[in-house]
């Protein structure tokens, strides 16, 4: 019988396999534990703050707070655009919410008419989830209180206090400052391509962006930087409580200070009354614009809230165009206010100003009879008299002597045909015609590319193709009065406390001092010679402070078949434009003014000069040095002088004596000098 045999090598082999598997599994388990320990260490030590923030994010939420928009001030610190509290009611859209029922509940607490309800239904349905939609702004305190008392019963309803833009002077600065309005879809699309735009801020329901004027040009500076309110929320994102300690304060927008003076600006709009036109006042020393008014104007506060379609149509269709900025955008023929520039061109071309040209009232040239505004004519006129009397015949013939190119060169030297960098858009440079302009303007009509001699006489009196704006007229007057510098206008005084460049940092004028003095002398005669065309309307009544000026009338229709140029009985749109430019004091120029009364009727002295006088008075009286000069006592009259026969000049006459009347003597008739014309 055979004995069983044990093969130990098989046992050892099985044990070896077991040990290898045990070591492998143990290693894997150890690696897993090590990995878990490392990950745990990473979470607890390295990424603790990150997950703490994520955890807090589930509990806390930050609500964006628009920053206060920067103030816009005048040169003296008077607020022209500021902010005021605004109580708002908003609906926060949630998935599955009954919009109709929500609006029904709100209608029991605040007024919601049919048109507003239809608009809100559309806006809420189109809004993304959790996006707030403004239901009502400028709620009264009573309405705001009713909403907050019922807040627990009104899910998805929020009432808060924000800020809204306000313009204290209404329409006085509307064209210069512009206004703010809600962000449109077009604005959002445009902002996506601009990395400087805050996308979240643009979607905030209370946010407004600048439209037109300073509000648009300096929108990014005025916006500031948004802040946030820290709030504790539940699982559905509803606010449970606020955490003021975690709030991020908003940074207000920068302050923009203008060179305008609120008193002068308001007076300029006041004197325009119901008329249409513009008034621009400029500091002759540095180019600062003290007033830039376009009339009629509009209330910018209405645009902040939003105009209805009917309201906007009423403004846009009104024939006097309140939405058009007539100080910069509207262009007009300057009429006789252009004659000082033609005078400078003639002097620069070597014309002797003392040579006289006879003005019989009409002049035949080129198959036409060219007429002067004075039917009987002015007689023999030199340049000084022609400026004083605004003699058309003199400037017809003088323009022909020097030609259109010389006139255009002088016009550009005085600021016509130029767009000035005043910080806001909207200027139109007008037209300063010359031979090269004619070639460009009539590219498709070669027959009209030639400058015809018959075009020059009209050019000499500020008519024809020439067109300018009121700002350019003020610049021309300021440069002429300054007598040395080619001043540029300045509207923005500082942004965020940083002073902007002065308008006096410019080259000298391309005219000699003698020529400028001569033309200024003619303008002084316009306002201060009893036979000047604006004598009676240019007396300031401020002691020895005198104003120099120039009247102008720009035709808007032909008078060939008209019986009279008197436009008192014609339609408003067919009346002549009425212009006046001036500077004062004449002996020490400080301020220049340009007045344009659209369809104001015949004669710059009838509508333009009285308004320029009133605005100039305000500017002069606000100047401390000029005011001190005005208030200084006048010198006493000289003592009476005794003549050789013992008669003292100026003494009271002797007592009347009784007796027969003296024999009659031939008394020459005398005429009363005119007290001012109308051109």
Automatic annotation (TrEMBL):
Penicillin-binding protein dimerisation domain boundaries: 65-241
Provide the topology term for how it sits in the membrane. Answer: Single-pass membrane protein
The segments labelled Disordered in the record are: 631-679
Record's Gene Ontology CC terms? plasma membrane
Q: Which GO terms describe its molecular function?
A: penicillin binding; peptidoglycan L,D-transpeptidase activity; serine-type D-Ala-D-Ala carboxypeptidase activity
Instruction: Please tell me whether the keyword Cell membrane is annotated for this protein.
Output: yes
Q: Where is it mainly found?
A: membrane
Q: Where does the record say this protein resides?
A: Cell membrane; Membrane
Signal peptide start-end = none
Q: In this protein, which residues make up the domain named Penicillin-binding protein transpeptidase?
A: 277-616
GO terms in the biological process aspect are: cell wall organization; peptidoglycan biosynthetic process; proteolysis; regulation of cell shape
Q: Where is the composition biased (Low complexity)?
A: 667-679
Q: Which UniProt keywords apply?
A: Carboxypeptidase, Cell inner membrane, Cell membrane, Cell shape, Cell wall biogenesis/degradation, Hydrolase, Membrane, Peptidoglycan synthesis, Protease, Transmembrane, Transmembrane helix
Pfam families per the UniProt record, alphabetical: PBP_dimer, Transpeptidase
* Stretches that traverse the bilayer: none
NCBIfam families in alphabetical order: pbp2_mrdA (TIGR03423)
The record's PANTHER family line, in alphabetical order, gives: PEPTIDOGLYCAN D,D-TRANSPEPTIDASE (PTHR30627), PEPTIDOGLYCAN D,D-TRANSPEPTIDASE MRDA (PTHR30627:SF2)
Name assigned to this protein: Penicillin-binding protein 2
Question: Which organism's genome codes for this protein?
Answer: Caulobacter flavus
